[in-house]
Amino acid sequence: MKNNKEVVHCIVDYGFKRVGGKYKGRILWVLRDSVLRYGELKRAIVGVTPKMLTQTLRELEVDELVSRKVYLEVPPKVEYALTKSGQELIPFIEQLRIWAKNQMEQKNITVNSL
Amino acid sequence: MKNNKEVVHCIVDYGFKRVGGKYKGRILWVLRDSVLRYGELKRAIVGVTPKMLTQTLRELEVDELVSRKVYLEVPPKVEYALTKSGQELIPFIEQLRIWAKNQMEQKNITVNSL
DNA sequence: CTGAATCCTAAGCGATACTG
DNA sequence: CAGTATCGCTTAGGATTCAG
User: Fold this and answer.
1) Under CATH, which number does the domain A11-106 receive?
2) Model confidence over A41-82: pLDDT tens digits?
3) Alpha-carbon distance A30 to A44, whole Å?
4) Which one, out of A24, B30, B84, B96, has a CA that is 20 to 30 A from the CA of A13?
């Protein structure tokens, strides 16, 4: 049993808690313009384990940033998409991305391509 | 000795890593329009311990989001301020804050006032 | 006043195996 | 295909004390 009492100190705090953690930002970003299946997400988010992917998707679902649609087929098919709230987050992630891009160029940092 | 090899999977990942952690967002936000001394920051960021405050400020310094100015006086006086890169981050935090405010209103969430 | 040092806990995360 | 279950590690973070 998990104790879900989250202490929110201010509005900014609340906002960062929604998109914090190791994978949330990347997941929201890859879902920005396409609905993706579980396996597609798994391949897109390099390095994520099934456990963490599922866990993170559940949290995003609870916060209503991502929706989950199950197709009753064999083999199973599940699609993930941004909700309206999730989409509203994209422009701001885009800003962060532009900022990050500039920083990385200034500091000559390159992306780790496993 | 700490191993500083940070694995960056993509640009968005890099961006979130710069502002991630429990206090970075709040610190950047309170510094948005004022230069603050260590003690003032301590009072502003409710619940932070000196260890975490110092540690977080050091990380922000290394990333060059915050500058540290020491006055050689007795008693000591140290001022923290946003750098140019840090200031460039404010619009994005502001957007996130607006988004969070809407979310909290929709969900009837209130801020924890210790 | 502005921290540093130490010790400790919790939780986030990883690896692996298994299933309807 | 889309997940669970289990175990174990690592590290972020907390509590407290001390110091220039």
Assistant:
1) 1.10.10.10
2) 999 999 999 999 999 999 999 999 999 999 999 999 999 999
3) 7
4) B84
